[in-house]
Design goal:
The complex is a heterodimer of chains A (about 60) and B (about 230).
Chain A (H helix, E strand, L loop, with lengths): L1 H5 L5 E2 L5 E2 L2 H4 L3 H11 L2 H21 L1
Antiparallel strand pairs in A: 1-2
Chain B lengths: L6 H13 L1 H7 L4 H29 L1 H9 L8 H18 L5 H12 L2 H12 L3 E5 L3 E10 L7 E12 L5 E6 L1 H10 L8 E4 L3 E6 L2 H15 L1
Antiparallel strand pairs in B: 1-2, 1-6, 2-3, 3-4, 3-5
Helix pairs in contact in B: 1-2, 1-3, 1-5, 2-6, 3-5
Chain lengths: ~60, ~230
């Protein structure tokens, strides 16, 4: 039942020809949730976080 | 047939092409000359159908046709035939639209005549795949497509960013911001905000491609190893 809901097609279309998905529905999609989880545990994110931490600490040293 | 009456089937053809779901999403991707040509062509079809119906009616219920024509304010040969092509077009649009699913028709139009970037965006939109978008100012976004606009109406595309950064002097990717922690929080707490959407002018996109995190990690690790 849970899978049925998650595999639902949330995309919508307007009469004028625009394809879209609402933010609320976007984050309900199973593929998106799994991609977010996967990326959060990846080296890419760790690298970004560590670079940002170094930048922040060097800035605070400059200020101090 | 008086020549000025031909404006009616031409309008009928244009109406059919721009409002019938069968053609309207294709029409949004045609150039002006193609639109004129297709409108004329559909107008000729509609006029031909009207002429056939007129012939059938004259053979079957001619007296009623004559009475009807005598009551018209304008007396002009083929006026009813030309006008009927317009009525036929209105009916086709109103009835025909019920049989065409707009989402399917839009996707068909993009698949058949969409340009390369539109095809890539549709792929990301349908398969929920991340795209790597490089802008002409050096900024880069790794994002999901949230909205595909009508190409003839808007050049802007709405994305939900996952990461962003820039290209350095050597054109290497430098990622500086990640939005995923916030999204993870949204998902866990059930909050939804539209604040994170980014809107990009298609003309400002220097390049776009699929973003495969595994591939990116392999390349970046390979580079780090070479450096060390």
């Amino acid at each position: 039942m849970k899978n049925e809901t998650n595999n639902k097609d949330y995309t919508e279309a307007t009469d004028s020809g625009k394809l879209y998905i609402t933010t609320e529905n976007f984050f309900k999609q199973e593929e998106i949730i799994s991609t977010i989880k996967e990326l959060l545990g990846s080296k890419i994110i760790k690298q970004i976080e560590s670079t940002n931490n170094i930048d922040n600490s060097s800035q605070s040293v400059k200020v101090g | 047939m008086p020549w000025n009456l031909l404006i009616l089937p031409l309008v009928a053809g244009y109406y059919l092409v721009t409002y019938w779901r069968r053609y309207m999403y294709y029409q949004q991707r045609w150039d002006a000359q193609r639109l004129v040509f297709e409108s004329i062509l559909r107008g000729i079809y509609l006029l031909f159908i009207s002429y056939v119906i007129r012939t059938i009616l004259l053979y079957t219920v001619k007296p009623y046709c004559i009475i009807f024509c005598n009551h018209l304010p304008l007396k002009m040969p083929f006026l009813c035939t030309a006008s009927f092509s317009l009525i036929l077009s209105l009916l086709l649009v109103k009835i025909g639209n019920a049989f065409f699913d707009k989402k399917k028709q839009i996707k068909n139009a993009i698949t058949e005549i969409g340009n390369e970037i539109e095809l890539l965006f549709l792929y990301s939109f349908e398969k929920k795949k991340l795209l790597l978008i490089s802008l002409d100012n050096g900024k880069i976004y790794i994002a999901w497509v949230k909205e595909l606009p009508v190409p003839s109406a808007s050049p802007y595309i709405r994305f939900i960013p996952a990461m962003s950064g820039y290209r350095d002097e050597k054109k290497n990717m430098v990622l500086t911001t990640q939005y995923l922690s916030i999204y993870d929080q949204y998902i866990n707490e059930g909050i939804t905000k539209e604040d994170n959407d980014i809107v990009i002018d298609v003309k400002k996109i220097a390049s776009a491609s699929n973003f495969d995190p595994d591939m990116y990690q392999r390349f970046s690790i390979g580079k780090e190893d070479k450096v060390s």
